[in-house]
Sequence to fold (576 residues):
Amino acid sequence: MKIKKIQYKILLLLSIILIFSLGTSLLMVLKSVSSNLELQINQDLDAKFSLIEVLLKSEELALKKQVNLLSEEPTLKMSLQTKDHITIQDTASQLQKMLENDLFLILSDEIEVMAKFPKLAKFKNIEKVIFFQRVLDEEISSNIWIVNNKTYLIAASAVEFYDFIIGVVVVGKELGDSFTKFLSKKAKSPVSIYSKDILLSSSWGSEVKLLPLQNQTIDQTVWQGKSFNFKLNDTSLSFYLQSSYSYILSLLNEISLKLLLLGLIIFLIALFVSFIFSKQLIRPIETLMKSAMRLKDGDFNHEVLVNSHDELSILANSFESMRVSLIKQHKELAQNEAMKKDLELASKIQTSLLPKSCPKADGIEFNAKLLPSSHIGGDYYGYFTEPKNGFGVIIADVSGHGAASAILMAMARSVLQSRVDLHSQPAKLLEFVNHVLYSDLEEAECFISMFYCFYNEKTKELKYSNAGHNRPLYYRDNEYEELDTDGMLIGILDDSEYEEKSIVLNDDGFLVLYTDGLTEPHNKSGEEYSLDRLKTHFLLDHINLVQSLYDDVDDFAGENAYYDDRTCVYIKWKSS
Fold:
């Protein structure tokens, strides 16, 4: 691994100090190196066995995939369905030629077939019977078989025909010398397989007698080994991996000589080298310190430059990037502050568009509140007074939030105020608003929900029309009545028509107009505040029912209460 320049400088200086102070501890250093090399060999063997495990698992998956495909083979199913042994053998022979597996078995009835097929006689034992039964019971799909000192990695699957199990198909890969040579080539280490201290296969072949867990000389090379356990279902194998130990001995000798020579050389040039490298290290660090102090004092105008071509240069580039980022953030803060002031001004302007006073009507109490989700919003409410007849009340909600919704709502307010002659005709007023705003709303891809009502103080009649808004609630005789009419949202169709209805109000009743920002907030459990809670709230005994409603929604939903604009208008008729 190539050591970067700054790392090389630091390590060289540390090496000089350590060699002068620990020169007499050379033997301890060599011992430590030897231990580390042995540890590295063990870690290397661990890594190689992990690779072997991956290869075994890959082989297992390949066998499972193959046996699953075979269990769905129509020819195999038909031959097993005939229960004719000759037919089954022919089918098995054809599939064996095609697959070229080390082990391939087809069993219609595991006990009966093992008894009748001579080739399967070696599998006729209680362990295999139990294995096949577990396959049929879908408890197992792969395992390791050791038969006649041969080891097989096998996969098995039940064969079904119209939801009936008619047999078992088994395919296997022999874990013999050729396979261990394959593993040895991949892991770059000799591999041997044992079962209960019995050698089953080895990449060395049969001519080498191995001594597990011992250092062994083979072909004039000392080998160090380590045993690993591999278990598949109820069968375990031991994999014995080896690494050359002669390489460690030669490496230790080489290190000893190099350390001696290095000690002599460093003793002569230590002072000179230390002086040169200290200068090279201090110069860019001083530059970085000066740049850091400038940044600390708020001076962002000096570029940070360090020409060391190492990690200090990377650090200097980071300082430079930070300087540029601070300049950018400073500008953004100034822009944000200006934007904040603009939004505060827009909020004041939008607030000024709301009613500054309530209609003066005998025996009627008004209470209203609008709370945008941010500085400005798309909700609106207002009053229109006709001294001779009564008053009108409007509540509206523009889709979306923010500046665009606020602008559209201001336009809607201007249109509403422009037709004083229609204030006593709710349906016609909504039709006029829709006609005027349709093109602007279509271009902005927005719409407005709106409810307007007009109350005649003489006749106590309330005429109303709804353009897709939340249905207001009128309470009398101990029950709520929802006021609604047919009509599309403002901005959906240019020629929308709106239905108008009327109702004669009783004394001691009250009317609640609201937007969905008061009913749809969810708490942390995902539960909605809901219309039912709003209805229940207005039956409570509070001095200010509107303000207490907002407090109740805040307590229920927390931060989620501010995801949408919230508006409520409460009108109560008092008995004279």
